[in-house]
Amino acid sequence: MEDITKQSTMPSNVEDDKLSTFRRAVDNMIATNDASYDSRYQRSRRDYVRKYTNEEIQRIISSGSLNQQSILSNNYFGLDGFYRRIIIYYATYLKYIGVLIPQMKEKPNKNVINIYNKAVNFVNNINMNSLCVDFAIKALLNGTYYGVVQNVNDDGFATLDLPFNYCSTRYKDRLNNDVIEFNLAYFDSIIDKKQKKIALQVYPESIVKAYKKWTKNKTIENQYFIIPSDIGICFSFFDGRPMFLSTLLDIADYYDYKNYDKKRVQEEIRKVLVQKIPHMNDGTLLFEPDEAEAMHKGTVGMMKNNENVSVLTTYAETEMYSSDASNESVNNILDKAANAIYKQAGVSPQLFSLTGNVATEMSIQKDGALAMYMANKFANFFTNLINGLYKNEEISFKYEFLSVSYFNEKEYVENSFKLASSGYSLLLPALALGMTQSDLANVKVLENSVLKLDKLLKPLQSAYTQSNSSSGGAPAKKESEKSERTLSNEKSKEGGGAE
Question: For residue 77, which of 259, 255, 256, 247 has the smallest C-alpha distance?
Fold first, then answer.
């Protein structure tokens, strides 16, 4: 096997050229992390997952360090389907559709409009959904996301994930950004000199300068570098602990119950064939022990290919007793254990195994509050980033995410369209449908100036200003808006009977 710690025999100028090439290439890369500087061997070990005992999980949740809790959380994200689905559900709840709102001090002039267009193009160049989902998953798993902005310009920006166990946050700046304190000892933890040199090439210049200064005078005062807010990315949720860490004990209990159920099923499948050797009326053995042994061996030979059957040959009376627990009661225990996981996470179990409608609808609405809490954190970051690029005395910007999710998209479009027909924003329905701010303007230019559709086609009358319905009464409710009793009564009327 090749020694992975072996030093390179290339001339130093060749290595320098390779590093320079890497530096130029990384300018166009988006989203990497500290794992990129590990060898393949180290990364394969990092990917290893293990099962924790219930006692270990309890100890880490109650008194473990943030780093231990992060490792536990990431381990179960790669190992367990329950935990993974909960994290992904909340991270992908929103469509991350936003609107860039210009704040102008005077009437817009040519220069202000030009700046606005640049800012809109900057937002369009960002893969907003993918970026925010990535932020959300890492923040939910670790409790906090740490990163830095790289190479920001009119075409977009790149991000670099910072190693979680070398970062902390205790303060906020005047713009409500969480401030990152970065432990410069991270670079000393990279043993391979070539990988360390690459890391120093990739990290922002201000961090590298602080590290070089610290190496000359290693004191605790200058070991922690406060990353400037204009390049730092920090999303800390609540107390900074992994959001759904408490569910791991319930997950562990569920698998314990599942193992017990598996053993029970195996015991039920296993059969025992009993050969009872009869006696004569006077107690004399009908078959001698050597004959009974031959019979036993013959029967065992006949059943040797059936692993679920055991053979017992005996002169005694035998009887087998089994537990009174039925399959139904054991399955109920498993269902309760599975439901306990989702209840601990604060999410409805019916989202992942639908059995009702009202409770699920209410749970989805409540989940939107947490999703918007995360989105507002992201929006504050993008607002500061855009203002750092384009703000001047005439114009500033605010970026805001709309509460459009994959669950309420239709209702949001309908409601925003009703408002638009009353003179409110024309942007919101288009944005909710997936268009960007510039797309809407470009489509209207295409339709009116190029295709002349405004003259060829006449818009239909609004369905909200006239009605063709002659029937009275309240409009029919959706299935999700009906109570369980109403649904049961409707089913009874149809002849289905209540369940």
Answer: 247
Burial code of 374-411, b = ≥16 C-beta within 10 A, e = fewer?
bbebbbbbbbbbbbebbbeeebbbebebbebbebbeee
Phi, psi of 146 (to 5 degrees): -120, 135
Q: So what's the pLDDT on residue 6?
A: 38
Longest dimension (CA), the chain: 120
Structure token pair of residue 482: 């009906």
- In SS3 terms, 299-357 reads as HHHHCCCCCCEEEEEECCCCCCCCCCCCHHHHHHHHHHHHHHHHHHHCCCHHHCCCCCC
**Which class for 242: exposed (0-12), middle (13-18), buried (19 or more C-beta within 10 A)?**
buried
List Cα–Cα distances, 321 to 269, 313, 331, 437, in angstroms. Answer: 15, 18, 21, 73
Where do runs of H (alpha helix) occur along 325-436?
327-345, 358-390, 409-420, 427-432
Return the minimum-mean-pLDDT range out of 43-52, 156-165, 361-370, 407-416: 43-52
Query: Which pLDDT does position 303 carry in this prediction?
Result: 67
The residues that bridge with 139 in the sheet, in sequence order, are none
Q: What DSSP line would sit under 445-499, residue for residue?
A: HIIIIIS-HHHH-PPPPPTTT-------SPPPPPGGGS-HHHHHHHHHHTT----
Answer whether 61's CB lies under 8 Å from 248's CB.
Answer: yes
Helix 81-91 vs helix 358-390: angle between axes, to the nearest 10 degrees?
A: 60
Pairwise CA distance, residues 146 & 164, whole Å:
7
* β-strands 98-104, 395-401 pairing: antiparallel
Closest CA to 234 of 182, 195, 174, 188: 182
Q: How many CA atoms lie within 13 A of 491 on its CB side?
A: 12
- Tally of CB atoms within 10 A around 342: 21
Phi, psi for residue 240 in degrees, rounded to 5: 80, 5
- DSSP per residue, 71-124: HHHHHHHHH-HHHHHHHHHHHTSB---EEEEEEESSS--HHHHHHHHHHHHHHH
Are 247 and 344 within 8 A, CB to CB?
yes
Question: pTM of the prediction?
Answer: 0.69
- pLDDT tens digits, one per residue of 71-120: 999 998 988 778 898 999 999 999 999 999 999 988 888 999 999 999 99
Q: Are 257 and 334 in contact (CB under 8 A)?
A: yes
Q: How far apart are the first and last CA of the chain?
A: 66
Residue-averaged pLDDT of the chain: 77
Pairing, β 309-314 against β 271-276: parallel
